[in-house]
Structure formats: C-alpha cells, structure tokens
Amino acid sequence: MTIAAFDLAQFETATGADRAALAAQLDDMCRSTGFVILTGHGVASETITDIWAAANAFFAQDVAAKQAAAPVYAGAPYGYLGPNQEALAKSKGVDTPPDLKESFNGRARTLNAQVDDPDARAFALAETPWPDLPGFREAWTAYYTAVEDLAARIMVAFAEALNLPSNFFEPFNTDPVSAMRALHYPATIGQAETGQQRAGAHTDYGALTILLPQPKSQGLQVMQDDEWHDVATVEGAFVINIGDLMARWTADRWVSTLHRVVAKPDQPKRLSLAYFHQPDWNAEITPLDGSDAYPPISFGAYLMGKFNAAAG
Ligand SMILES: O=C(O)CCC(=O)C(=O)O
Ligand SMILES: [Fe+2]
C-alpha cells in the first residue's frame, strides 16, 4: 500500500473540470486512508532548514537545559516533555508502556479570546516556556506561521473535495487554537518492552495534522485492513492526515486513521514536526452532510473532552 500524493500548487492553479477532478482525487484519499503526501506546498526550504536546526539543537542539550523549558505547571501541555511521560495508545484505551520519545510543544500564536472558561484557558493557552537557545523561538514561529498558512490553503482544497464553497471553512478558522510539537525518538538499542512503541497507536484529535518526518527516516505506519503499513518519507513533501474532528464533521465520509511510530531494535534517532490544525474554539461542528450522525458540538468542549479522556 502506498499513500497517494496530492500537489497543492497544481490544484490551486487548475480551473474548471481539471480542478474538480483533482478535488475528487483528494476526496478519495481522505475517504480511503485519511493520509496524503502533500507536494507543491510552497513552504520555503530555508524555513524548514531552520526549524530542523533548532529542533536538533534543543534535543542535543543536556537534561537540565531541556528541563529548564518544562511546562509552566505539572500537566500543562506546552514545553519540554521528557521520556516516559506519554503513551498515545492510552488515548485509545490501550494500556502500554510509555512511548520512546521526548518532545517540545508550543502553543497557538494568539491568545484566543473565545476561550473564556478559566480551566480550559489555563490548559489550552498555558504559556510556552521557550528554551534559552539563540534563534529557537524565531525559527519555531516562522515555521509555525508557514504551516498555519499552509493549513488554510489545504482547508480550501478540503472544502472543494467535499463539494462545499471554497471559502467554507474560513469563518471556522479566524483564530484557531492549534499547536505544534517537535518530537525526538532517541536511537534504539536492543528490544523495546512488549507493547512499547516510539509513538503508540492513536488517531489525532483535531481537523488536520501537517507532519514533517525527518528526511529518509522510517517508522511511521498506518493501519489499513487490519495491518500496519509503512509510510515512506518523500523528500520535500509533508505527510498530512485528518483527525477525529474531521471524521466527525464529515459524518465519517472521511477517516481518521490509526497510526504509530513503530519501535524496532537498533534504529538511528528520528525527529519529526507535527502541527495540529484546529478550528476556532467556539466553532460549532455540525455534520456537513446535513445528517444527524452526530449532535452539534462546540470545538473547544470537544477538544477538552478528548484531553480529559486521554488523561483519565
Ligand atoms: O512522529 C511521527 O512521525 C508521528 C507523530 C504523531 O503521529 C503524532 O504526534 O500525532
Ligand atoms: Fe498522530
């Protein structure tokens, strides 16, 4: 099985029947695997080079320096999360040893005023504790801004793939509470514990994930027909996938596919960057096909429910 590729620039310059045909292809990809290799994205290679350098420099620090960027309170989602702090499979109710990874996590760019519940605000908009590394915050913000812009362009293609007006998602995306993580999977020596992965099997919660795996690295796998399939890295391309929210929004026309980063013995270290694109906090999510497949829900309430379920 291979994940199909979609050239965003080609779509954006196409018109008429050509454009409709490309939108229909994207719809197929989102219905069958929910994963797409995205080319023609236009993110400057310098922006990508800079964020890789920043992420590498961050994870190369000693533990104390990394811990200096620990979350502002225990349990806050942003900052440095060291080894043994997360088991993604638990979000699916599967009890496993912790994932073999560490991460640095950054908050949305703006302090969204729609998040008016104090508990939700304290969590979803907690401060990002920036590391004391020259250029890190600038490189992070430049890349974050670039993928945020890219996400808005992908949402245009998604709208057309769903036979909606091109700008359909715009009003749902005025001030999104998105987030980004840099993930570091240290080199593996010998066997992992039973059931332990670099990232346990999970689905993403939100609308759209824009993933940049380290070039030439291995390990990302998607579940299709009850089997795990490798997702090959394509130099210069992003891997994008839809999350649970998009599956719900499309009344399960599109699929939020189980994926993981498999742990194998004697693998070199691997880095990846994952940007999680969300609608506005107060966006009302009602099945787009007009059906009553799911009751309407506000995105913020939905997201907090996901976080609480994963923590519980
Ligand atoms: O590191 C990867 O390639 C995937 C990470 C992932 O799926 C996630 O963080 O949601
Ligand atoms: Fe994921």
TrEMBL record:
Pfam families: 2OG-FeII_Oxy, DIOX_N. The keyword Metal-binding applies. The keyword Oxidoreductase applies. Residues 176-279 form the Fe2OG dioxygenase domain. One of its GO terms (molecular function) is metal ion binding. It catalyses: 2-oxoglutarate + O2 + 2 H(+) = ethene + 3 CO2 + H2O; L-arginine + 2-oxoglutarate + O2 = guanidine + L-glutamate 5-semialdehyde + succinate + CO2. Keywords: Dioxygenase, Ethylene biosynthesis, Iron, Metal-binding, Oxidoreductase. Pathway: Alkene biosynthesis; ethylene biosynthesis via 2-oxoglutarate. Belongs to the iron/ascorbate-dependent oxidoreductase family. This is 2-oxoglutarate-dependent ethylene/succinate-forming enzyme.
